[in-house]
Amino acid sequence: MLTHLDSQGRAHMVDVTDKAVTFREAVAEARVRMLPQTLQMIVDGAHPKGDVFAVARIAGIQAAKKTSDLIPLCHPLMLTGVKVELSAEGVDTVHILARCKLSGQTGVEMEALTAASVAALTIYDMCKAVDRGMTIETVRLLEKLGGKSGHFKAEQA
């Protein structure tokens, strides 16, 4: 059932007034593939714009907090925790893991996905002058806890 459509098929914001407040958590990931020398520059801290991972981490956290401003039917949420982790994976990939938490009436999947996506876009923005061929890949929900639909865990890629 598509919960964002009313009986006439029109988009609307889901009313969560009567839903119980429960602990909810979501984890999402993204990968940015790039030239090996671009990743090495990031890891070595040699990028002329500064610490790429630090800036992408802050961008991801800020994005999670602004998700309802970006996605029209998302509820504004009082997040109680946002964590964005970035790490080198192999010789040509940055792996981004975003975790969002709250106690509330609706889930935080979109916040985690937004955090991972914006962190990836920030890496692209900071590094595009040296590597325009970067690709953002595998943006997906890894795990969701809490709420009526229960626990979801993605299968290994």
UniProtKB/TrEMBL annotation:
Q: Which UniProt keywords apply?
A: Lyase, Molybdenum cofactor biosynthesis
Q: What is its EC number?
A: 4.6.1.17
Q: Name one Pfam family in it.
A: MoaC
Q: Which residues form the active site?
A: D125
Which pathway features in its UniProt record? Cofactor biosynthesis; molybdopterin biosynthesis
Which of this chain's residues are annotated to bind substrate?
A: L73, C74, H75, M110, E111
Cite the Molybdopterin cofactor biosynthesis C (MoaC) domain residue spans from the record. 13-147
Single GO biological process annotation from the record: Mo-molybdopterin cofactor biosynthetic process
Reactions catalysed: (8S)-3',8-cyclo-7,8-dihydroguanosine 5'-triphosphate = cyclic pyranopterin phosphate + diphosphate
Could you state a single Gene Ontology molecular function term?
cyclic pyranopterin monophosphate synthase activity
Function comment: Catalyzes the conversion of (8S)-3',8-cyclo-7,8-dihydroguanosine 5'-triphosphate to cyclic pyranopterin monophosphate (cPMP).
Family membership, please give it.
Belongs to the MoaC family.
* HAMAP family according to UniProt: MoaC_B
Question: What is the protein's quaternary organization?
Answer: Homohexamer; trimer of dimers.
Q: Which protein, by its recorded name, is this?
A: Cyclic pyranopterin monophosphate synthase
| Organism, scientific name | Pseudomonas palleroniana
